[in-house]
Amino acid sequence: MHIPATGMPAAAILATLRNFKAHDMDWQAGRVFAYVYQPDEATAALVKDAYMLYLTENCLDPTTFPSTAKLESDIVRMLANLLQGDEQVAGNVTSGGTESILLAVKTARDWARVHRPHILQPEMVLSRTAHAAFHKAAHYLGVRPVVVDFDPVTFAADVTAMEAAITPNTILLVASAPCYSQGVIDPVEAIAALARTHGLLCHVDACVGGIHLSFLRKLGAPVTPFDFSVPGVTSISVDMHKYGYAAKGASVVLYRDRSLRRHQIFASTDTTAYTIINPTALSSRSAGPLAGAWAILHYLGEAGYLELVATVQAATARLIEGVNRIADLRVLGQPAMSMFAFTSETINVFMLADVLRRRGWYVQPQFSTPRSPRNLHLSVTYGVAHNVEALLTDLAASVEEVKAQPPFDRDFLQTVAAALADDPSPATLAALMAAVGLQPGALPKETALINEVLDALPDAVANAVLIDFFNELG
Ligand SMILES: Cc1ncc(COP(=O)(O)O)c(C=O)c1O
Questions:
Q1: For 428-462, how does the pLDDT look when each residue is reduced to its tens digit (9 = 90+)?
Q2: What is the pLDDT at residue 445?
Q3: Three-point CA angle 147, 152, 157, nearest 5°
Q4: Is the CB of residue 335 less than 8 Å from the CB of residue 184?
């Protein structure tokens, strides 16, 4: 494709862009139980207007655009207060949970360079339920992730295993509030106490839970303490673009105090160009996400968030009860809020996800681990809450549909997994993709068979296969 020689009319361009979405899942109908966090229409419209109002302002230079600094400090203060921090707490708005986590790990690494200079190969200890963003941070920053297993019944981090994993090289302990996969809160108090005992930092990943859980507590529900009220918690990530219902591109990373946050900031006067002072990973960035986040916090206020949380919790309780009533399905662990996962001992849940997709629903397949079975994840948000009964009806019918389908050919699957494990090269992958009916560079419509193969592979091989597959796209 080339840039067109002459421009196209605006109306045709917008029509084409709308058309591109024709094959996307219909999130606006509230049938996508992941990826999208949609408030009511009036709130969503306000967020969009606020975003567009600041689309062009650049957060890179708050001396040129002081409004961007004002938006950022207001958002940071509101969330620091919500998370029971005092005026010492300092933080920044980032582009998302991954960037917030990346920065928290970088901060820990650079804090250790100053305060634990003998450590040459820093390590962080985390449960297998922690988000992949920590593995990405480890990969980018040269910090070794030491992964420990979780309680296979509750899915909470195993604090005894975490303690056993601490070495003289450990700099950081990680807790999730909750973890994404099964929606379970780790024993944050015990993990933070462990960090204090060993002179370590402790990051709480409250990317999904920080806002929702705080309001759930305000509604009177029992919520495991997870925020700055817990001694020993040194940093927290909390996403505005998840259960804060803001537009994508807005997360917050908070530190107990400025002496810690200092390690996050990068400055450079080393070039022929303008002075760079970047508290976050990105340099130029639109102030749109900040304006969207600032707007929704003011528009909903505490009362609005309490209402959203109450609606979502009622829908989640009904959904969990309905799933557990289907004899073939079982909810995993003890979900703390509005995200959970279920498994089956009798049917193939990867096939179930495809059957549901054919009926217009998106639920998210998750792989097995040595301690947990393959399962399907659902994030319940305001935008999908009205569809719970409809989903339960289709879920029951889909379970029966899967039972009527022939199972995958075990021999074929084993051959595929063995071939990839032996030789995870792009050539083997291309041959196997063709065997399962996939063209290189094409996105699959149905994923059960692919997930079946990936789930059977060791993580390192599956990761290599996925990297090669994506490398062929686009
Ligand atoms: C617990 C948790 N942490 C971090 C992230 C990463 O957030 P993002 O996708 O905004 O980078 C997610 C995403 O779902 C998450 O659930």
A1: 877 777 776 667 677 777 889 889 988 988 899 88
A2: 78
A3: 45
A4: yes
340 in any annotated domain: no
Q: Which of 179, 208, 211 to mutate to test the pocket of ligand 1 (most atoms within 8 A of CB)?
A: 208
Do 284 and 422 share a domain, yes or no? no
Predicted confidence (pLDDT) at residue 226 exceeds the cutoff of 70? yes
**What is the pLDDT at residue 9?**
98
Q: Whole-model pTM?
A: 0.96
Probe residue for ligand 1, chosen from 33, 98, 185 as the CB with the greatest number of ligand atoms within 8 Å: 98
Q: Ligand 1 in contact with 203 (CB < 6 A)?
A: no
Say whether both 291 and 415 belong to one domain: no
Distance 97 CA to ligand 1 centre (A): 5
CATH of the domain at 94: 3.40.640.10
For residue 190, tell me if it sits in a domain.
yes
The answer on 419 and 282 residing in a single domain is no
Residue 135 located in a structural domain: yes
Which range (179-183, 373-377, 439-443) has the least confidence?
439-443
Residue 382 resides in a domain: no
* Boundaries of domain holding 456: 410-472
368: left (phi over 0), alpha (psi -120 to 50) or beta: beta
The structural domain count of the chain equals 2
Q: Is residue 225 packed enough to be buried (19+ CB in 10 Å), middle (13-18) or exposed (0-12)?
A: middle
- Say which amino acid occupies 435: A
The Cα–Cα gap between 357 and 27 comes to 12
